[in-house]
Design brief:
This is CheR-type methyltransferase domain-containing protein. Pfam families: CheR. Residues 11-258 form the CheR-type methyltransferase domain. Keywords: Methyltransferase, S-adenosyl-L-methionine, Transferase. The protein is α/β, with parallel strands linked by helices. It has nine helices and ten strands. The protein has two domains: 4-72, Chemotaxis Receptor Methyltransferase Cher, domain 1 (Orthogonal Bundle); 83-256, Rossmann fold. It is 39% helix and 17% strand. A seven-stranded mixed β-sheet has the order 6-2-1-7-8-10-9, sandwiched between helices. Strands 3-5-4 form a three-stranded antiparallel β-sheet. Helix 1 crosses helix 2, helix 2 (30-43) runs antiparallel to helix 4 and helix 5 (83-93) packs across helix 6. The longest helix has 18 residues, at 4-21. The N and C termini lie far apart (55 Å). The model has no long low-confidence stretch (mean pLDDT 94). The structure holds S-adenosylmethionine (SAM). S-adenosylmethionine is lined by residues 73-77, 81, 105-107, 111, 133-135, 138, 181-184, 200-202.
C-alpha cells in the first residue's frame, strides 16, 4: 500500500513533468516511474522528496532532467517493428529525387536504421533519415549505432564489434542522423523539408488533445506533397484542412495538399 506522502510526491512529479515539458505519464506507469525516480535520486545522493523539491524550485541541472525524462518515457522498439509501414513509407519516399525522412520518437535508433536499410534495399543512394527523441540517452545510443545481433538486420550492413554486438557500416550510418528534440516544445525541429514524417508508438502515450497538437506541429514542417504517417488510429481522429487523409488500411497517412 502506497503511503499518502509517496502518493503526493508521485502526483507532484507527474505535474512538474507536464508543466515543464508537457510530458504525459499514463496512470498505470506512474508507480513504476515513482520508484525509478527514487532509485535515480539515491544514485546521486538524494531522495525522492529532496529531488522533487529541487525540481519544483528549478534547481535541477539539465543532466538531472534528461535522466528523469528518460525514465518518464517508454522506449520499447525493435528493427522493422512494422514492416507494412516501412514499405509504405518507402513507396512515398521513392517518389522524391532526394528523399528526406524524419522519424519522430525514434528511441534508440532501430526505426531510422530500418528505414535506411529498406531504402538502400530499393537501390536508393540519395536519401537522408533523421531520428529525433526527447531522451538524450536514446539519442546517444542511436548515434553510436551499436546493437545486439538480430536476424532482422541483413548482415551486409553491419560488422561485429564485440561479443554478439553489431555496428552499422559507416556508409549506412552516413545516411542517418539524430538529434534530441521534444515535440511538445515550440522549438523548431532541426531537420527541414522532410519528404516523409513517420511517428509510431509515441502518440499512444499522449491524450487525444496532445496527439492532435503534436500532429499539427509536425504538419507545419511538411512541404506541399510531403507525407505524414502514424500507426493505425494513433492519430486519434486528427483532421487538417491542409492535409488529405489517404485511404491506407495499414497506417494513418496524410499528404500535404496546400
Ligand atoms: C515506444 S518508443 C517507439 C520507438 C519507435 N518509434 C518504434 O515504433 O519502435 C516511443 C519513443 O517516443 C519518445 N518520446 C515520447 N515523448 C516524446 C516527445 N515529447 N518528443 C520526442 N520524443 C518523445 C520516447 O522517448 C520513446 O523513445
Amino acid at each position: 500500500m502506497i503511503s499518502a506522502a509517496a502518493s503526493l510526491t508521485e502526483d507532484q512529479w507527474i505535474e512538474v513533468l507536464y508543466n515543464r515539458f508537457r510530458i504525459e505519464v499514463s496512470q498505470d506507469r506512474r508507480p513504476a516511474l515513482h520508484r525509478a525516480i527514487g532509485a535515480y535520486a539515491q544514485s546521486i545522493g538524494e531522495d525522492n522528496e529532496s529531488l522533487l523539491a529541487k525540481a519544483l524550485s528549478r534547481q535541477l541541472s539539465a543532466e538531472n532532467w534528461s535522466k528523469i525524462i528518460h525514465l518518464a518515457t517508454n522506449h520499447e522498439t525493435r528493427f522493422f517493428r512494422n514492416r507494412a509501414i516501412i514499405d509504405q513509407l518507402c513507396n512515398y519516399a521513392e517518389t522524391f529525387a532526394r528523399p528526406r525522412v524524419l522519424s519522430v520518437g525514434c528511441s534508440t535508433g532501430e526505426e531510422p536504421y530500418s528505414i535506411a536499410i529498406a531504402l538502400a534495399e530499393r537501390g536508393l543512394a540519395n536519401f537522408k533519415v533523421h531520428g529525433i527523441d526527447v531522451s538524450e540517452d536514446c539519442i546517444a545510443a542511436a548515434s553510436e549505432g551499436i546493437y545486439k545481433a538480430s536476424e532482422a538486420i541483413p548482415s551486409r550492413y553491419v560488422k561485429e564489434v564485440t561479443n554478439g554486438h553489431l555496428r552499422f557500416y559507416d556508409w549506412l550510418k552516413d545516411f542517418v542522423t539524430f538529434s534530441q528534440h521534444n515535440v511538445m516544445s515550440d522549438r523548431p525541429i532541426g531537420f527541414t523539408n522532410p519528404s516523409v514524417i513517420v511517428t509510431q508508438n509515441m502518440l499512444i502515450y499522449y491524450r487525444k488533445e496532445a496527439r492532435h497538437r503534436i500532429l499539427e506541429g509536425l504538419a507545419l514542417g511538411l512541404p506541399i506533397g510531403g507525407y505524414l504517417i502514424t500507426g493505425p488510429s494513433e492519430d486519434a481522429g486528427w483532421k487538417s484542412t491542409d492535409l488529405q487523409r489517404l485511404p491506407v488500411p495499414t497506417a494513418s497517412v496524410f499528404k500535404r495538399t496546400q
